[in-house]
Design goal:
alpha+beta, four-stranded antiparallel β-sheet
């Protein structure tokens, strides 16, 4: 285990969970430490030697810590990112650009519109007839410099950790998954939508994922179908992790072809479409799939950068 980041509803539950996890870890010979919380009351209950080094209770604002490769601002309770540009002596070869790109860890896909551009550059680098340690062509090197030069701007992105943005009691929770594809990539993004007792509506980005289109040319409708598949699988994993009923999910696609395929008998199509439509119909109800205009589809950003 690396990092553990559970959430509970009250300070009392947080204190109890920390004690139980510590006791359980001690029984197995693993002493859990470096604890941090967004609440001073929870931190005060933790022995000094078991707290994260960044903690200083004498300060008004709590520390920023790194968890699962992502920065967590405990004072604002938001996730953020911090990456640096390559040094001046950086040599643009396949080996070094791959190593630098691998340092951008984004487990929940918050940076997908940015990282998809890096994936496309890596794909382009692979198609060039250069070795691992041969300098990339000047035109491609300029593209990499531009992309790496934008790394510091990622610090401006802050995503709330909590999926709810209101203290009102929720009446209804639904999950909405958007999928999209272009000739270069396909993507999916998942949001939570809350309806609260006071009539207000809240939405939160939960997770996203993007993949490159195969080098072998595929039609846009088929790529849209592949986007629908990763959206389905991503949502299925999410519902299991958050214990949400899959009947509360609505899937949105901007492809009329995909909508027609999903609402038809899978055996009527050729194997490529039939297999994927069969999986969609097995793990979801065709009535859950709806159409959204392309201009209103947030997943579009994950396919174009």
């Amino acid at each position: 285990m690396d990092d553990l980041m559970p959430s509970v509803k009250s300070v009392e539950e947080a204190r109890l969970m920390r004690k139980e996890i510590t006791e359980l870890g001690d029984k197995a010979g693993f002493h859990v430490r470096k604890w941090i919380s967004q609440r001073h009351e929870v931190i005060a209950d933790i022995p000094d030697q078991e707290r994260a080094a960044e903690i200083d209770l004498s300060k008004t604002e709590l520390a920023v810590t790194k968890t699962l490769g992502v920065l967590w601002n405990t004072h604002e309770d938001k996730f953020s990112f911090q990456f640096s540009v390559p040094p001046d002596e950086f040599v643009y070869i396949k080996r070094s650009v791959l190593k630098k790109t691998a340092t951008i860890f984004d487990p929940l896909g918050f940076l997908s519109p940015f990282t998809v551009r890096g994936k496309l550059l890596m794909q382009e680098s692979w198609t060039k007839t250069v070795t691992w340690d041969e300098v990339l062509p000047p035109q491609l090197e300029r593209k990499w410099k531009t992309w790496f030069g934008e790394l510091p701007d990622l610090a401006k992105i802050k995503t709330p950790r909590c999926l709810k943005d209101s203290h009102s009691k929720e009446e209804r929770l639904t999950v909405h998954t958007f999928t999209e594809a272009s000739e270069k990539a396909y993507a999916a993004v998942v949001y939570a939508r809350y309806e609260f007792e006071d009539g207000s509506i809240g939405t939160r980005l939960i997770t996203a994922k993007s993949r490159l289109a195969p080098l072998k040319a595929l039609s846009i409708p088929r790529l849209e179908l592949m986007g629908a598949i990763i959206g389905l699988r991503l949502t299925k994993q999410l519902c299991e992790a958050l214990e949400i009923e899959q009947t509360k999910v609505t899937y949105w696609v901007d492809s009329c072809n995909v909508g027609y395929w999903i609402h038809s008998q899978s055996r009527n199509f050729k194997p490529f479409v039939a297999h994927r439509v069969g999986e969609i119909q097995k793990d979801s109800n065709p009535e859950q799939w709806r159409y959204v205009p392309g201009k209103l589809n947030p997943a579009d950003h994950g396919t174009r950068g």
